[in-house]
Amino acid sequence: MRLISGLPVERDFGWGAAIESAARSYADRFPVAFRGAEGCELIATDGRRYLDLLCGAGVHVLGHAHPRIMAALHDVQAPLLSGLDLTTTDKLAFIEGLLGTLPAALRDDCRIQFCGPTGSDTIEAALKLARLATGRSGIFAFIGGYHGMSQGALGVSSARGVRRAGLRVRDDVTFCPFPYPFRGRGAWADPEAAIDLALAHVEMLLADDHSGTDIPAAMLIEAVQGEGGNIVAPPRFLRGLRALCDRHGILLILDEIQSGVGRTGHWWAHQHADVRVDMMCVAKGIGGGVPIGLLVYRSDLDLWQPGDHIGTFRGPLLAFILGRTTIEVIKEERLVEGAARLGATLSRGLEEMVARHAAAGELRGLGLFLGIELCGRPGLTAGEAARRVQAGLFERGIIIERGGRDGAVLRLLPPLNLPEAAADRFLEGLDRELASL
Hints:
Aspartate Aminotransferase, domain 1; 2 domains; Aspartate Aminotransferase, domain 2; about 15% strand; globular; alpha/beta; about 40% helix; four-stranded mixed sheet; disordered N terminus; single chain
């Protein structure tokens, strides 16, 4: 019997599968036990190294065990590990670094609410603040959107598969169409027409006093739908929503939990559309690998009363230290620009596969936030094809995510500093797996 982290286990993977809950997902897709990680690789107990293009669902934007992150951890002395919402020097340093990443319009007129240490709680905070600021309770969310697993966040997420485990708390949520031409029918299959139709649908709901829908407090949207299948919101669509929000006094909330922190080739994905936001939800990569969630919003919306949104772990000192370090490294190493460059290289290789393989339907995404949707064939659905490719890549030592409708989209969430050789290895492996379908 071997020891793993001091625990006697007879089988690396089987022991964990026998004791953990059935709610696990990633462990079943990648059935080995890992003992460590370095850079863009996970290290299994047998010493095999796996190219990690999932990276904690986008958390590890600098990869695993980055030298600067490890040095920052080593330098922590007498840490106040949970500071509630007390002011600390580390929090102030983190805020200073965060402000330097924000679009000018938001940076110069904002407040920051530190939430519980999950993206879901930033969504909860945004929904609560929108109601408080406007006096209205309705929310317009979008088909294909995913915002987390807590009850409010589930209420504004569209996927039946994740909603079924919730309490179905919706609080006047209206789901509006999101342009998705790849699966569109009729005029919805045309990219420009899909934008027009989606905007017209939202405008009708707002303008028609017989639409059955009240004017909402806010619209909540992702600039790139991650779990929905890496579907990019066209800039004209986001700008059109901004105009409708302004016309009707509605708040525009951007969920940047997975798409932010440089992943798309801008610090924040909505910057590609040059659109002004009223609130922005941030989590995942901004904490340098340690859980943190925060909400950035216009200063005039700061109508909270003390205690309106509280939680024990709102002052994660390690996240402040590692988050500030992460921001510094991204700036010093110009990793936002690097994500745009490497993303363009990956995109060219993936576009060639779309043209060459019948199973590859469409490439979507921005920067290093990419997804490729697969097609089915007689006897093999698109979702089954994606599962086969994911499993085949894992056998080759490559870990990727799936998402989208029927899980048919192969999704990339690599570190921003992914080596070009690692990108080439992925492209070669994917090319072989697609050819085998």
